[in-house]
Specification:
Elements (H helix, E strand, L loop, with lengths): L1 H20 L5 H16 L1 E10 L4 E8 L14 H9 L3 E3 L22 E9 L4 E10 L7 H46 L10 H14 L5 E5 L5 H10 L8 E5 L5 H9 E2 L11 E2 L1 H4 L4 E5 L6 H13 L1 E3 L6 E3 L3 E6 L3 H6 L5 H7 L2 E5 L9 H15 L5 E2 L1 H9 L5 H15 L4 E2 L6 H4 L18 H22 L4 H7 L4 H10 L12
Length: about 525
């Protein structure tokens, strides 16, 4: 009957210890609880858990029961009973504690019962190494488990503790790894979105970059306007990662990508049961962006009902979750973007005028590529380097292909340039991309003043055809310069080119700009 009772208590204790070790990541707290459970089961008088400190290479007491903290000592491997158990990995039993007077330090034992006290010390180990020791002093009273039973039982407990220590260590290492990765990622994002990395050399883009730099240092609401593909999201990220909120979250919401029926929930969140399918509370984008920035892309497409609630957030910096009654305050910077003509939308009743003025505190306008053609070469160069690196290529673009790219209007703006260059890098089989490697829509787009092979009668030789093209262009450019008094801007306009395109051809064909009336 006694054996059955002890076995039941043993299983119950192992279950309780396992539950404690898996219930929290606070190792010291769980080890303290384990010692208290053992005390109840074994009627311990004293108990300690000692773990190895790798840096000092000593064994330190981390948990004790019944022992004065002033009596805590550090052990070395092989030193004393605890050191010997740690070094050998085998349990040690002191049947009569009177045999080891040094063990009494810090303990209070009655003289008439001291002969009935024993000390058990077992290793705390994992499959690969020993982590420390578990030792107890308990009274061998009638009905208590035998020494052998106690040793077997404590060895199992030591193994469970060892596993918990190993798991705790791996979790800490994983957390540290994630923390380092998060820091590295944040640094990479910050570096990537530095304003100095933005590509553009036209006067209008230089002015735009200066505006972005100034507004980044503030907390003002920003409205970014421009055609699709001009880089509005890139600018929004640049504003965030160069602001005082760079360490906070950057949360994006494309207002056209969410159905109207779910848009309010996405923005402000909802509580459980707010509508059919709301099985749990959900945080909205505004709540997720607290202490950071929320980027509302295509804000001009918000429905009127949602515009009103957005206006309240801008005014009061608070909102109610869908189905909720408590206002939630947030500290969020708002950056919005649109490709719509909001002034026209206001006139037609499609956009609230008061919301427009709340969003348009600092406007940033991104001009289309067709109005800043001098930015095309650096953009092509940037994307060519990027996709060459990603695809382990060293592709170059021929003069013929480059001229075609420079003469194209790029209705898709920067996004279209990027897609074009990526496609050419991937699809071109040679190391130099020619006119024929360009996308169909670019090859077939003709512009006044552009001359290519298809505009001329094919000759017997590609070489003679190329020479004919060059001769014709040289004659046309020279004639235009003469007619316009060698003023390049006028000559370019006469033959349907931009000044930049004319400069490109003058350099390509080494056309002399010496005026006939100048002394030679």
């Amino acid at each position: 009957m006694k054996d059955s009772t002890n076995r039941s208590l043993e299983l119950t204790t192992i279950y309780e210890v396992s539950k404690i070790l898996t219930s929290t990541l606070n190792l010291n707290q769980s080890l303290n609880s384990v010692v208290n459970v053992l005390d109840k089961f074994l009627s311990m008088r004293y108990g300690t858990i000692v773990l190895e400190d790798k840096e000092s290479k000593t064994l330190n007491t981390v948990v004790s029961l019944g022992v004065d903290k002033k009596s805590h000592v550090k052990f070395k491997s092989g030193e004393g009973i605890i050191g010997k158990v740690f070094k050998s990995g085998s349990p040690i039993v002191i049947t009569d504690i009177r045999e080891e007077p040094a063990l009494w330090k810090g303990m209070t034992l009655d003289d008439d019962t001291i002969a009935r006290f024993s000390m058990l010390c077992v290793p705390i180990k994992t499959p690969t190494r020993i982590k420390g020791t578990l030792s107890i002093v308990y009274c061998r009273k009638e009905g208590a488990m035998s020494i052998n039973e106690a040793i077997s039982f404590l060895v199992m407990i030591g193994s469970l503790i060892g596993q918990a220590i190993e798991i705790n260590k791996k979790i800490k290492e994983e957390k540290e790894k994630l923390r380092e990765e998060n820091t590295h990622l944040h640094q990479a994002l910050t570096s990537r979105h530095q304003l100095d990395n933005m590509v553009g050399q036209s006067e209008i883009m230089i002015q735009t970059f200066q505006t972005i730099k100034r507004v980044s240092a503030s907390t003002a609401t920003v409205l970014i306007r421009g055609e699709s593909g001009t880089g509005k999201e890139l600018v929004a990220k640049g504003i965030h990662y160069n602001s005082l909120r760079a360490d906070g979250p950057f949360i994006k919401l494309n207002c056209t990508a969410i159905p109207d029926s779910l848009l309010e929930s996405e923005l402000f969140g909802h509580i459980k049961g707010a509508f059919t399918g709301a099985f749990e509370d959900k945080k909205g984008r505004f709540e997720l962006a607290d202490k950071g920035t929320i980027f509302l892309d295509e804000v001009g497409d918000l429905p009127i009902s949602t515009q009103l609630k957005l206006l309240r957030v801008l005014q009061e910096r608070s909102f109610d979750k869908l189905g909720g009654s408590e206002s939630i305050s947030v500290d969020v910077r708002i950056v919005a973007a649109t490709n719509r003509d909001l002034e026209s939308a206001i006139q037609k009743g499609g956009f609230r005028e008061d919301l427009f003025y709340r969003l348009n505190v600092v406007p940033v306008f991104l001009p289309p590529i067709r109005s800043r053609s001098e930015d095309i070469p650096p953009l092509i160069d940037y994307f060519l380097k990027k996709y060459n690196a990603e695809n382990s290529r060293k592709l170059k673009i021929s003069d013929e292909a480059m001229e075609c790219l420079l003469n194209y209007d790029w209705p898709g703006n920067v996004r279209q340039i990027e897609n074009c260059i990526e496609r050419v890098v991937i699809m071109c089989e040679k190391d130099i991309a020619t006119y024929r490697d360009l996308p169909h829509e670019i090859k077939n787009a003709k512009k006044l003043g552009v001359i290519d092979e298809e505009d001329l009668i094919t000759t017997n030789s590609n070489e003679s055809l190329t020479n004919s093209i060059e001769e014709i262009e040289i004659v046309r450019i020279t004639d235009a310069l003469i007619k316009c008094g060698w003023v390049k801007s006028r000559a370019a306009k006469l033959i349907g080119l931009t000044t930049r395109q004319l400069d490109y051809r003058i350099s390509k064909y080494s056309i002399s700009l010496d005026k006939p009336w100048q002394d030679t």
